[in-house]
Amino acid sequence: MHTLITGGTGLIGRALIASLVADGHTVTVLSRAPEKHQSSLPAGVNAVKWDGKSAEGWGHLANSVDAIVNLAGEGIADGRWSDERKRRIVQSRVDAGKAVVEAIRQAQQKPKVLVQASAVGYYGVGNATPLPESSAPGNDFLGQVCFDWEASSAEVERMGVRRVVIRTGIVLSTGGGAFPKLLLPFYLFAGGPLGNGRQYFPWIHIDDQVRAIRFLMENENARGPFNLAAPQPPTNREFVQKVGKAMGRPALLPVPAFVFKIIFGEMSTVLLDGQRAVPQALERAGFAFAYPEAVAAVRDILQKKK
Length: 306
Fold this sequence. Notes:
Blueprint: E1 2-6, H1 11-22, E2 26-31, H2 34-37, E3 46-49, E4 67-70, H3 83-106, E5 113-119, E6 127-131, H4 141-151, E7 162-168, E8 170-172, H5 179-187, E9 203-205, H6 206-218, E10 224-228, H7 236-247, H8 257-264, H9 269-272, E11 275-277, H10 280-284, H11 294-305
Parallel strand pairs: 1-2, 1-4, 2-3, 4-5, 5-7, 6-11, 7-10, 8-9
């Protein structure tokens, strides 16, 4: 199988590439700076330059691949959200989706499947009821980002291409994203709930994230949105207690919401607010989580870091 990946140098992309290559698959990565990333990619993976907003210079590749995985977009948890950064967060995702649509439209032999990235932020914040994939989008910034992100590539379905939308929770990995920010207080023996701790915390181990993407790529009956988050999402208070148990550290000191807001500004909503997203569609499709329980997941992540 030949897979084309946009956003392949990010946290999820790097892990997905390693998994595909390990199983003998061919991978091509689109990158704004291929000369910068080529040396860090596994042997045999080809990095091709793109501008992030059109099919110019690479669109012909859509003719020769079996699958496209569109992960491109400026990192949501990488820093404070200024008005300009919020604009780039939205625009980078919408532009990438439109570029993929443009390439597939031009292809005479179209890919069998497009995996379109999204996030559980689609559902907004503050909802304590279970949220399967049929739930309505939220009306906050992240809800609108995810709605526009998903819509950017919807047109490929009218071209006969199977499309899967992955709404991802907090990915447990020390390689990037929001999780390392949550771990920091524990290293200082100051771990505890974030804010009031009552917000739900949909999470997924990086290995399950990759396994789920590949499962959905290969399952010809899979289409539409899928929540990529472990079953039975805990509250933040419950989750940090499990993190403390896994690390052998106390989880008793609440981190006041204002501290995160001072450090991260509006971006703190990623950790201070939550969604009770449940993987209803993914489990119904037959996917089995390797890490459904947080203590084992965190222990595994930390062990791999050593």
